[in-house]
Amino acid sequence: MARDMSDKEILKMELEQLKKEVSTPRTAVSANCADTIAYVEGLLPNDPLIKGVPDDKNPYKGDKGGCSIT
């Protein structure tokens, strides 16, 4: 697509994109990190990767056999 456009058209598209980006609301990285940390820590008590899965709810636990490679 850009091959078919002149340099002037490409620059015009870039300018339009920059105008859109400049009006995008921004927040500090530290504020975003703090929000992310709070969100993750809020979910921590229910996280099965941290807490583990109870044996009665674990479909992979038990004597279902296994895989043997011969």
What does this molecule look like?
By secondary structure, the chain is an all-alpha fold. Helices cover 50% and strands 0% of the residues. The radius of gyration is 26 Å and the shape is elongated. The model has no long low-confidence stretch (mean pLDDT 87). It is a lipid-anchor. This is Guanine nucleotide-binding protein subunit gamma. It is found in: Cell membrane. It comes from Xiphophorus couchianus.
Number of helices, counting only DSSP H or I runs of 4 residues or more: 3
Q: State Rg.
A: 26 Å
List how many beta strands DSSP finds.
0
Tell me the overall shape.
Answer: elongated
Report on the biggest sheet.
none
What is the subunit arrangement here? single chain
Order of helices and strands: HHH
| Residue-averaged pLDDT | 87
Beta fraction of the residues? under 5%
Euclidean distance between termini CA atoms: 56 Å
Stretches with pLDDT under 50, minimum 5 residues = none
Which structural class do you get from the secondary structure elements?
A: mainly alpha
What keywords describe this structure?
0% strand; single chain; elongated; 70 residues; mainly alpha
Helix and strand topology:
Elements: H1 7-22, H2 29-43, H3 48-51
Put the structure in a nutshell.
Residues 48-70 are annotated as: Disordered. It is built from 3 helices and no strands.
